[in-house]
Amino acid sequence: MKDPKTPPNEKVDQLQNHTTDNADQKLTTNQGLKINNNQDSLKAEERGPSLLEDFILREKITHFDHERIPERIVHARGSGAHGTFKLNKSLKEFTKAKFLSEEGKETPVFVRFSTVAGSAGSTDLARDVRGFAIKFYTEEGNYDLVGNNIPVFFIQDAMKFPDLVHAVKPEPDNAIPQAASAHDTFWDFISLMPESMHMIMWAMSDRAIPRSFRMMEGFGVHTFKFINDEGAVHFVKFHFKPKLGVHSVAWDEATKISGKDSDFHRRDLWEAIDNGAFPEWDFGVQIIPEEDEHKFDFDLLDPTKLIPEEEVPVQMVGTLTLNRNPDNFFAETEQIAFHPGHLVPGIDFTNDPLLQGRLFSYTDTQLSRLGSPNFHEIPINRSLNEVHNNQRDGHMRQQIVKGKVSYEPNSIGGGCPFQAMMKDGGFSSHNERIDGKKIRARSESFVDHYSQAKLFFNSQSAPEKQHLQNALIFELSKVTIPAIRERVVGQLAFINKDLAATVAKKVGVKVVELKQPNGSIPADADPATLQSPEKEPSTKSSEALSMANTVKDKIESRIIGFIMENGVKAADVKSLQSKLEAKGAVVQVIAGSLAPVKADDGTVFEPKHSLTSTASVCFDALYLCSGKQSSDNLLNEDNKPGTLLFVNEAYKHCKAIYFGNETDEIFKASHVNDKKHDDPAIITSDNKDSDAAFIKAIANHRVWEFEKERNNPA
Ligand code: HDD
User: Fold this and answer.
1) Where is the Catalase core domain (predicted)?
2) Which one of 69, 71, 75, 336 would you pick to mutate in the ligand 1 pocket, going by the greatest count of ligand atoms within 8 A of its CB?
3) Which has the closest alpha carbon to 666: 711, 622, 701, 608?
4) CATH number at residue 285
């Protein structure tokens, strides 16, 4: 284990049975034969042809030729970690799931975060939804919660999923663009799918460009069912709220991070766990008694709707902690196979038609991705409890089942393995009464497409609304067909007329009034009856939907760049560094070069970066270290462009910048000198308690409310 603070975990212990360590070992073939020359192939004479009999060369090259597997059809780019789920408050009243019943119980988990559209090697900072998939290794078998960082989805029925994915993926003729929704086919589809408009509001918001996986919410999205010991049913929505708050970067910053460090989120997760700054989320549930199913002005089965927290509060009942990096990316993060159909007793599906389709797709995709129905035997996918059934054989079977019998009923095997009674933990589906006709259609209760899109937009702060508008303008400006831009603007007009008008102006189209939202209508329905109603949301504005209301009191794991050069005042540096580190922040020294920096008192600081090897977008906040000589050196001919680029970019991206003693010349030479108002994230030695002011500004994340001023230097 890398970190002594990492607590033991049953799943990690189980994985240890499958790990190997090459330390102090001799090189062997896959058959265990020791190899004495790994440099040269077997030849007829030194300059002659290689021999077919060279089984060592053949084995090595054959294995290499086959070492790739298909990437995930969606969510290909991802990063994962091990951890623990702890139940703080029993949900026994609602569910018989054991991992949710016993207060204090800890369950090992593996969590994989992902982007959706890009390939496995694409940038982490794409504007995209993020996957948030959790495998709980419970005592009753594996339970998978395969959710996202956004609580709703683009479409209402799984029938449209391949269309959605084909539309957003690179276009089929030229495979452009990678990991981006800003192109014709995506917006063509969206413009014809009014049901997607609520999700579009989220996907165009800053939620789609998170600062870190550790600063995202997680949602189960669908409504699920809880079933308790008495068989009573409650509907449930799952929530994960990050203890560090929900934070995002600026779009300009996201595009730059993609160039400077396309592994930004992967690295951030890895380093935080490695440093012992274990990411944590509060786990909460919204619970609705079965008899209240129809009390809402939307359908609980419609995955394009959320339940406002004002209508059903989220009860916080658990903690999710990630505390161990994988040993091997491929074996764990790549081979993990999630499936919303991996259930435990006490949790069941609803008839949400998107969820119902997912129940087919996930096993099916693992068959082509992992290559065999035995994917459950791959170590990361194994349940902690033993597997006993009569399934047999198949590619790469690992388990050696003893005895003659692989059928049931049997007498030869004494009838084993036995069916489990419900009282012994046997799973039984909720006995829901179904009484109706077979029909290929959409429920009328699914037809309101705009009221919750309005709710989301209305709940945003002014800077968030501005960002959302800018994102729509950016995306639609990449659409080459004016009619598509016009249709999207027509859809926006159903949500907010001003938003539609501004976007229309910027993308060069008129706001036309759409008569009938197209798409998602049963072929034989009367379109007039299915028109999305002009409807206001039941809740007008919801605090939980705006990141402006998130937690803003922590600087733990924030990366603070200390920019310095020779002559820096060591005492000031050390004092601030110790205050920041005491609160869990990470200080990294940046200098003109990687050469050690000599401070005024002879202290030597080792730079981690030079002004040219990194960029301000890789830091949460900057400290221009005290000292006239250091400041002069940072402004010499060599360093000045780098220093000012750092400061000006951080300023533009609304970050906290602290000008230490005697760094006025840097202040004056930078865009910060143009500031007109009292900006709490620009700290100088004139501030009363400047160190504390800096810490507060970092915790606040960004001063988005000063973005206009900061982006208009005189
Ligand atoms: Fe899905 C992967 C989340 C709808 C079909 N999905 C996948 C992953 C996440 C989600 C997080 C990555 C899991 C991992 O890390 O391995 N998907 C969602 C959410 C949805 C959703 C929150 C809607 C609420 N998905 C959805 C539908 C279908 C699929 C409607 C098909 C009918 N999803 C898949 C898939 C993937 C997948 C093709 C690709 C790789 C995999 O399953 O293992 O089966």
Assistant:
1) 28-416
2) 75
3) 622
4) 2.40.180.10
Nearest 5°: CA angle at 446, between 442 and 448? 135
Three-state SS string across 351-395, please?
CCHHHHHHHHHHHHHHHHHCCCHHHHHCHHHCCCCCCCCCCCCCC
- Domain-embedded: residue 598: yes
Asked if 130 and 78 touch (Cβ cutoff 8 Å), the reply is: no
pLDDT of 624 reads: 98
Q: Is 397 annotated as a binding residue?
A: no
Question: Of 111, 67, 158, 73, whose CA–CA distance to 369 is shortest?
Answer: 73
Domain-terminating residue out of 326, 352, 381: 381
DSSP 545-588: G-GGGS-----TT-EEEEE--TT--HHHHHHHHHHHHHTT-EEE
Residue 110 near residue 82, CB atoms below 8 Å: yes
Give the C-alpha separation, 84 to 134, whole Å: 11
Q: Which of 362, 366, 367, 375 has most ligand 1 atoms within 8 Å of its beta carbon, as the pocket-test mutant?
A: 362
680 domain residue, yes or no: yes
Give 311-324 pLDDT, tens digit per residue: 999 999 999 999 99
Tally Cβ neighbours within 10 Å of residue 570: 20
- Give the chain's domain count: 2
Final residue belonging to a domain, choices 350, 381, 412:
381
- How many other C-beta atoms lie within 10 A of the C-beta of residue 292? 13
288 lies in a domain? yes
Sign of CA dihedral 579, 585, 586, 592: negative
694: exposed, middle or buried (C-beta count within 10 Å: 0-12, 13-18, 19+)?
Answer: buried
**Domain for residue 532, yes or no?**
no
Whole-angstrom Cα distance, residue 624 to residue 691?
Answer: 12
Cβ within 8 Å of residue 477, ≥6 positions away: 182, 506, 507
Number of H helices and E strands in the chain, helices first, is: 18, 18
pLDDT average, residue stretch 289-314: 97
DSSP string, 649-699: HHHHTT-EEEE-TT-HHHHHHSGGGG--S--TTEEETTSTTHHHHHHHHHH
DSSP 3-state assignment of 517? coil
Whichever domain contains 682, its CATH number is 3.40.50.880
Full residue range of the structural domain in which residue 639 is found: 552-710
What is the DSSP-derived secondary structure letter of residue 520? S
Give the mean pLDDT of 516-534.
Answer: 60
Which residue, by CA, sits nearest to atom 4 of ligand 1? Answer: 358
Burial 428-453 (b: 16+ CB within 10 A, else e): eeeeeeeeeeeeeebeeebbbbbbbb
Token pair, residue 206, equals 């800053």
Of 597, 588, 694, 586, residue with least CA distance to 639: 597
Percent of the residues in the chain that have a pLDDT greater than 90, as a whole number: 93
Is 324 annotated for ligand binding? Answer: no
CB contact at 8 A, 52 and 61? no
When mean pLDDT is compared across 297-311, 529-543, 647-661, 696-710, the lowest value belongs to 529-543
- Look at residue 2 in the predicted model and tell me its pLDDT: 45
**What tokens appear for 252 in the block?**
């300009």
Ligand 1 interacting residues, C-beta cut-off 6 A: 72-75, 78, 112, 114, 131, 133, 146-148, 153, 158, 161, 221-222, 303, 337-338, 354, 357-358, 361-362, 365
